[in-house]
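Researcher: Let's try something more involved. This one mixes different molecule types, so please make sure each is placed in the same coordinate frame as the others.
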Amino acid sequence: MSEIVKKNLSEIIDLIKKKEIKSEELANLYIDKVNKSKKLNSYITTCFEHAIQKSKEFDKKPNLNSLLPGVPLAVKDLFCTNGFKTTAGSKMLENFIPQYESTVTENLWKEGAILLGKLNCDEYAMGSSNETSYFGSVVNPIAKDTVPGGSSGGSASALAADLTPATIGTDTGGSIRQPASFTGTVGLKPTYGLCSRWGIVAFASSLDQAGPMTKSVKDCSIMLEAMAGFDKKDSTSIEKKKENYSKNLKTDIKGLKIGIPKEYRVDNMPKEIDELWNKGKSILKDLGADIIDISLPHTKYALPTYYIVAPAEASSNLARYDGVKYGYRSSKGNDLIEMYENTRSEGFGDEVKRRILIGTYVLSSGYYDAYYLKAQKVRQLIKKDFDENFGKVDAILTPSTPSSAFKIGEKTNDPISMYLNDIFTVPVNLAGLPAISVPAGLDKKGYPLGLQLIGKTLDEQNILNVAYAFEKNCNFKNEIKNWWL
Amino acid sequence: MSIDKDKIKHISKLARISIDSKKSDSLAKDLTSIFKFIEQLNELNTDKVEPLSSILNTPLRSREDQINDGKIRDKILENSPKKNEEFFVVPKVIE
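Model: All components are placed in one shared frame. Result:
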């Protein structure tokens, strides 16, 4: 097996720029490894012919000034790709072929990247273990029977297994950061509005954000730079100048104030996570940062708030799947209404149905004020917690997840215990802030654990810098043994 | 809030999802525990709090009322589960 696929994105870009490898050779190396890695089930669709053709075109006339010159990339199967199946991990969209391209993927192709395939994910991005996918569970390359996290589980698994040099996911409540933490990779959820949502299969529109998943912080800055940007097709897209995150990356964090929120020390948190958090604090302190204890008093209400807001928005967004214009249609039913009901019953999986029902209920007549309006008010309090503290600190350091990767099947029968996975990631989505998960250590089993850095609105550069400095001084090494080959 | 089979029937009707009666017991149990979890919010007094519906400080942009695409009828029909020439076909709605 080639060693080249193990390299970071930035190293691969260097090889291409120095003409030490051609785009086509590179595509073939990844294709070879993807073909031998079916056990992981990280790809739903492969686009190999397309990748070879595009890489040949690139090699004939290489534009080496682009950010991702001739780099083959696989993306989460939630991004619409023109002419290539986009399933969202659902039976409902099993045969859906978009006739247009999502803005974020379009931005990647404009920077020279080439679509290699579509990666498995929880159905409609609803899940924390990739087990709700209609196309089956994904395996974490860390160990045989473990989940890669979710919902961007296929992305995290493919990345950690060297089946793509970098990738993108979406994060509504932790769906980039939690799988990044479970696989020893880097994942960033940008500020709400930094990356366009246009052409991404919608889950909860006030929370959804696309972001990069990579093997290093530097790679993360390159990918973010390529993806981000104003898009008039998304009415919540932020109008601002493009930033050069990769060029401006630096390790000097002297004098930065890092907040440590006491509410993130939750009951029953494994000792290892607490130790890792302390290790993170001392690394940043040694680099000259000031560590400051802070309080985010409404933290414990973030998950209950999320499980009103997200299902409410999902029930509204998923109303479009009625079997008429596209997607699955049931052959059963005597009239239009029965056709709708059977289509949605057969086309959606259990978790998606559960969330649509929760959302429908909290928005229904007589319950709106008690649930939805209440949740919007608490969301305000959660955001205020952050606003008040960002006067005192420049970034906040927390664990990314309350545990390392768990076993496939371990939590599928208990929705609440599954939801608790996102306890540290959800508040950030509710407040619309940027946050990055960076690998920080291994637990006793040898499974990776991540730490999360939360930044101010549009302060991606700052959290990238802190993560970059942390990465350089943490000496984290992922121990993936290619056992599935 | 405890969710029973009748409530499941009512919500699933609103959501246009038919629910197998065999599954509705376990679904009622799951939803009851989820609602118990989200009702923690009732511990908080939010009488004087403004609801937050968007984290963006600026109002949503509206676009000019202009046709900016069109002529994509055939593309749109491409993914339809059932069509007849330029129409989507659905089960009969009027007698």
